[in-house]
Fold:
Amino acid sequence: MRSATNKDRPLGLYLHIPFCAAKCAYCDFYSLARSEDRMDDYVAALCRHLTESAPQADRHRVETVYFGGGTPSYLGVKRLLRLLQTVKKRYHLAPDAEITLEANPDSAGDWRALRKLRHAGFNRISLGVQSSDDAILRQIGRIHTWEQVKNAAEAIRRAGFDNFSLDLIYGLPGQTMEIWRQTLDDAVALAPEHISAYGLKLEPGTPLYQRRESIVLPDDDLQADMYLYAVDFLAQNGYEQYEISNFAKPGRASRHNLKYWHMEEYAGFGPGAHSDWGGVRYAYDRDLNGYIAGELRLSESSEIPPMERQQEYIMLSLRTVEGISRREVEYHYRRPFAPMESLFQTYAAHGLAEATEAGWRLTPRGFLVSNQIIGALLEAMGTDEAMRLDRAARGDYRVV
Structure:
């Protein structure tokens, strides 16, 4: 008989569904358009992979399951239920587990289908909306309309879901501040529990990147204004910012996404899926045919040394509103906080950081330049490490 302690280690599962009705112009994720003929074979392969990996998770309690993509909702109810049933059968799924399904508005308008998913255990929907302006949606390759977004939100509620999220993007081609404000107004009017607001990134290899010379994008200053407006506007409407790009009603932060930022374990399944499990970070090849054939080739795999974990903690914690903990740095990673403390004080004087009871966090303006701040902090810690090793080499073991 398994003891209760065997199930106490928290784990998140990510199931990658690499199918879309059409590929968006900005999307860099591994997904394939119009591949309905491969869906049954893929679901079978995914169930097989989940089953084979389950014994490794015997000492874990699965707290979150995230169906991402691609567009998982395109799989249809029967395939999604088969996948969830495999998770329930093979893993120790917590009774209150958060189970999220990503969906596009054009494939989430059937409330009866959504109700079947709800009754099976799905309890959170994440809608890819991006904008409420139909002209902008067409320009970035989205195949839904704002009217379909409203219909999907209504269907989600009618199906019994009390937790859904909207993904929005600012900095899109042709997007003005007025259009962005209208998108935020329209989004809040649907009363979702969660809103993600991401800045557009032109990823090499995407259609939008290839058209970069012929499109007009908001400049850096306008994008910064869009971001700061979103932070203030969403706060006024009851959405608490808990990460650079994420806002939620009280108690409705995405538990699965928090696993990434809190450096908790998660296991990914499917081509292109990433994992951080058992002290190893790894990812599977972006190869649908190979995956279906059972060829689980890794595109990357490495054990994570303590120094890298420490750097990762600095980077990820400073993405959150909680910020970085002085005690965590000094007691868990056993590093002096002083090199960073003086930098934080400088950033605070410029309105980029603020002290917390536990340490420091970045302000919304600090989030805008977080990459530069984090780089400077890591450099300061690296310099301190070099000095520490030099002193140790000279025989001053008190500093080791």
Observations:
- DSSP finds 15 helices and 17 strands in the chain.
- The CA atoms of residues 19 and 32 lie 5 Å apart.
